Amino acid sequence: MRGDSATVPRYLESLARLHGRIHAHAAPRFGNLKVRLSSEIVGTQLLDERHKQSLLRSLAAMPEGDRLCHGDFHPRNVLGDLAQPVVIDWPDACRGDPAADACRSHLLMRLHADDLAEPYLDVYCRVSGVPRAAILAWLPYVAAARLAEGVAGEADRLLQMVSAS
Question: Looking at the domain that runs over 5-164, which CATH code has it been given?
């Protein structure tokens, strides 16, 4: 995808459609995405208790969802060519709202491939029919949960995303 900038739109379209195909599946036996996010928010040391409790209260009102969510969907976790892509790295798969999973993908791209983040979100919204606002509503929770992962160099940007929402 990075080898030829002219192919980026085609690859983003393929990624968004693939992500949508994942979300088309019900996942009744998988763990709950909101429970995972809550646990990670509680576990981060980078937010004070008042902020954590505020996030947890508002997270409780977000949609539950019963769809399969990959939990770590981004271009590096899709191998092969456009005709037969293979999605790898499934340990974070869970049951939830596809908008939350799309938000996590958007967040990861903002952190590590910023030039792809907005175009991907635009394409995902177009092919899935999920409104942009529904996806971005998950940003403070997804960003706060990502803080618990302790990835070097991400904390300042994540804290800004949590605070801006």
Answer: 3.90.1200.10
